[in-house]
From TrEMBL:
This is Nitrate ABC transporter permease. Its main location: membrane. InterPro entries: MetI-like, MetI-like_sf. It comes from Microbacterium mangrovi. It is found in: Cell membrane. The chain crosses the membrane at residues 26-46, 82-106, 118-138, 144-163, 208-229, 241-261. It is a multi-pass membrane protein. PANTHER family: ABC TRANSPORTER PERMEASE PROTEIN MJ0413-RELATED, ALKANE SULFONATE ABC TRANSPORTER-RELATED, MEMBRANE SUBUNIT. GO terms for biological process: transmembrane transport. Belongs to the binding-protein-dependent transport system permease family. The keyword Iron-sulfur does not apply.
């Protein structure tokens, strides 16, 4: 092969190599803003002349939403839902990390509990709500308990898998340096498992949000789920749509805040992944 032939082959391979240029961040942010605006504009246009009782004009829905947001009772329901969601998610995350770490490090405990754990994990989270309501009643504690247990398993399983997937070499290095068991857990094991833990926590947040709505719709008179269901049953369709919009906004904001937290905590991991892709 001559030098000119080799040069042509190299140039051809370079042209065929897929581009590694990343989409500018400003363009991604612009798309995140523009797409919802376009969808809202489309909704506004399509519903402007609607005479369908169950599909009122968006203008009517927004007017109802403004009235609801100025109503202290409605704001109290929003606050109750947010408080239940926050308490349940924090409890599920803490319990999931603690139990997952225990099961990942102590094999015999894992062998004893895994069959039962997978049995309850296979039950749809929403199906647990009527059981807790029937046993414990309609109190706020019942809702928090049902949300917590439903949201527990994604974080627990993710933590368990993350702890077990840790490189054995890291464990040997910690012993060589004479780290105590507590130091090994908090300085090595949990940081190594943290990417999987946060992935599980993200699923737990989504599960907690869904079960929060379901628990409020079953026998409760407070919370956004109850308000939305009561509006539907009372044939107050615009108020029902307003409640759905508020629920959607809360879900989006909660996911965005969690993504921001995950990005801050796992900055080292995200950066290492970017370097690996660029290499």
């Amino acid at each position: 092969m001559t030098v000119s032939t080799a040069t042509r082959v190299t140039r051809t391979a370079a042209r065929r190599r897929p581009s590694t240029r990343k989409t500018p961040r400003w363009m991604l942010v612009a798309l995140e803003i523009v797409v919802p605006i376009l969808l809202v504009a489309l909704w506004w246009v399509l519903s402007a002349d609607s005479t369908n009782t169950f599909f009122p004009p968006l203008q009517t829905i927004l007017q109802t939403l403004v009235q609801d947001l100025s109503n202290p009772v409605f704001l109290a329901d929003v606050g109750a839902s947010l408080l239940n969601l926050l308490i349940s998610f924090v409890l599920a995350s803490v319990l999931g990390v603690v139990l997952g770490t225990l099961l990942g490090l102590v094999r015999w405990v894992s062998w004893l509990t895994e069959p039962t754990m997978h049995f309850f994990r296979a039950i749809p989270p929403v199906a647990l709500v009527p059981i807790f309501v029937a046993i414990l009643g309609f109190g706020n504690e019942t809702r928090i308990l049902s949300i917590t247990l439903a949201a527990l398993f994604p974080t627990l399983i993710a933590t368990l898998d993350g702890v077990r997937a840790m490189d054995p070499t890291m464990g040997m290095v910690t012993r060589v340096y004479g780290l105590t068991r507590g130091q090994r857990i908090f300085r090595v094991t949990l940081p190594a498992a943290s990417p999987r833990i946060f992935s599980g926590m993200q699923v737990s947040l989504q599960t907690a949000f869904i079960v929060m709505i379901a628990s409020e719709m079953l026998g409760s008179s407070t919370g956004l789920g109850a308000v939305t269901l009561q509006a539907q049953q009372s044939f107050m369709i615009a108020q029902m749509w307003a409640g759905i919009i508020v629920l959607g906004v809360i879900g989006y904001v909660a996911s965005a805040l969690f993504a921001l937290l995950r990005g801050r905590v796992l900055r080292w991991y995200i950066r290492s992944q970017q370097i690996g892709r660029e290499a």
